[in-house]
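Why predict the complex rather than its parts? Because the way molecules touch one another can change local conformation, and only a joint prediction can capture that. The input here totals 736 residues.
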Amino acid sequence: MKQRALWLAVLIGSLALTGCGSASSRKSSTSGSAGKLVVWDWKSSDKTATNYVAKAKADFAKKHPGTTVEFVAQPFDQYYTLLGAAIQSGKGPDVILFNGGGQLRDRADSLLPLDEYVAPDKSRLAGWDAFSKEGKIYAAPITLQGHPIYYNKTFYSKAGLDPAKPPATWDAMISACAALKKAAGVPCFAQGNKEGYGIQFWMSGMGSSILTPDEYDQWIAGQRDWTSPNVKKIFSLWKEVNDKGLNTTGPNSTAMFMDMYTKFEAGKAANVIGLMSDVGGWHEMNPILGAENLGVMLPPVVTAGTTPSLAYDGGVGYGVAKWTKDPALAADMVRSLTSKDALTAYSADAGAIAADTTVTVTGGGPAAAAITAEIKDGKPALHVALSAKTQEVMGRVSQQLLAGKITVDDGVKQIAASDKG
Amino acid sequence: MPNGDSPLLVRSAPAGRTDEAPAARAPGRPLGERLAPFVLIAPALLIILIFRLWPLLLGVNFSFTGDGEQNGAQVGLGNYAELFDDPVFRIALRNVGLLVLLLPIAVAIPGLLATFIFLKVPGNRFFRSVYFFPAVLSPVIIGAIFNLLLSVDGPLNAVLGFVGLDPVDWLGDSSVAIFSVVGVHIWATFGMGLVVFLSGFATLDPTLLDAARVDGASTPQVIRHVIVPGLSRTIQFVFVTTMIGMLTSMFGLLFVMTGGGPGGSTYLPEFYIWIQQGQMNRPALASAASTVLFLVMLVVGLAQIAILRRGLKEE
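Output of the joint prediction:
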């Protein structure tokens, strides 16, 4: 009888454990006890991050020999869901990796302001804006992320265009597109908007040549005039490019990651608005197209009087959770994760443009060099300034625009409403 | 009385009838013996209460609180008002209505195919295993396969082009995409319904079929008056499980095939819940949507049982 009661207890106990286990996450991944820090990310299990994590750990161990650090790599597609559950319960990791912009700002009230801790790194690292809210810093950037326009020089040569001089105005771009179609038989842009990201890349990749510098700065500062003709131009041009057949077919059913890039890399389109770190950029295009065939251009001028520039922000960065037991300790971990040694390793292995401006990209070819050269004149990306909610609405509207189910005016009105609300 | 009732009731009923009044005041059996059944069902009951009903109530309660800065504050029906104001949630609900309309097709396909197998068409053994095969594939794999097949420059459109038809953007056209996804879902899951139908056929009384044939009934008459009434329980079961499957198991396909797009046209409530909780950081709003989905499923399920019970009865 006793035996049976014991079994019953074990059964109920294990049921209770599995019941909890599926909703929250693994026991070991919640906030560390004294002498232990838990870091959540979606990168540390990648081979390309092994060196980086080792270097960061070593740097931290020098300062705090008694503290153990546990890296927990979560799957990226579930990352913010799991993090949401952790935030809801007020327990979780001490140090958290974030995408810059909306994903961080929406959760800033669960994070610790880091200004006093990261002050010594402020000038060495770039991209702080994407990790700040209302003047306070909530995370330290490790990479820069932006939206250069890549082009395939082979096609430009084939079309009789100078591959060293990409089109500088929109009219020149349109005629280049016609030449590319005629001579090389490829559409101008690879486009993938299945996830609704295409419009974000379009907005940020082209924005500096559509909005006046004044409008641009106001947009970033939060003063967005959705009735401005130039803002509407971003969306009407988005539609026009597709209507004119300049995009690859079926943009609404083509995933940006990775079908759109696969098309560009497979030589099925001449240009693509890509990323400058990690995926969808020079790091994976160079080996396929040949580093010497991959060019990077600034957006061709659409509105007279604009100064095209590279749009970039802090890409990913580490923040500290409010509930951590020893904020200074966790902040020191963030500083180790952004140390020059660690970032040099990450930049080389993962093919990222590091947030540390003193790190030079080795082996990135002409494309990476062209991007690095534009960083000092670059501006924050337009779409990163929008909330996650507005980005979602914009993605939906952009698909309806391509499908011809909505007018530009109506679409912009919907996006504006979500930006204000 | 359903078969599931415990022997306890069967045993205590006559006891209650013979010495009704004394039983209430002075129990004839020792206390331990009378409590034993309750103790024995307690673990099962507690597990249901603690791990099923209590979280359900917590979730409903949570849906009346705010998100973000209002975290924890009571907002009454605010989340529900926001939900029904959101065009995407309205699309999600409309798509649920569409699924209900498409349900007869989703049930008829396995029913019809099972009938053919039951009537022993040539190659029925082969088809039996082939039909079930997609049911063992994960939605992610199925989604990836159909992403390739249905892409604008994919094989299906190549076939259409071969016979001179214009290509269709199966997953990129907002008026077609939901039908593509539902079609793939039916393809992927009808094997389960088929197996249930086949087991239902096994319980049919062959003498009834023979008698009908002897009486000169045609095949449609046999199906209408013998097979369908005989399978009424099975059909009811397949209807309800298929409906639940459509409302709760299409997430994987949606996620892989359309991501809710284009233009939000393929949203279903569960996808909406995931987006709000995981991407928009709105757990309370997601709870409200979950509560609505729960109520919808309850109403649809009960209505189905009621309609089918009436419709399938042979007078």
